[in-house]
Amino acid sequence: MQTVLGAAGVLNNYTVKFVTAIIPSGDLAINTTGGIVESDAGCFSFKRLKPSMLYAGEIEDRLEPTPGGYLRATPEKALIDWISLYESGRSTLSRVPVMDMDLSLLDEKRLKRLAQAAGIKTDIDDLILKSSLRDEEEERQAKRFGLKF
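Above: the chain sequence. Below: its structure as tokens.
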């Protein structure tokens, strides 16, 4: 999520942490609760999202191809997933750092469609409002000190 948002220029100061979606099947689909697995390759932390979250919204709103030929989340979907994981209480993710994000780089219509499908429209509306208030305050401060913004 942070990698996708950082690559899109939306998130400043992002970490190089990779998150991938694995869709368990069979018995794992019912019994998987998440956890940590340590191996020679590193430490892997698994979190469980509601299956409906993986499919919330239209596929073209959720996924986009990369130059490497694989599909990954759109920046809007990455933000929706971050908020959903944070709100679930099953993650160590912090609250979305609105002061460290440029939401103007996102497709607002896509973001709102995904938020509606994921059932977090109010959270997204609040985030957009906080972001616009921050932007307005930065402009006021820039004008006050004679800076070009």
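The radius of gyration is 17 Å.
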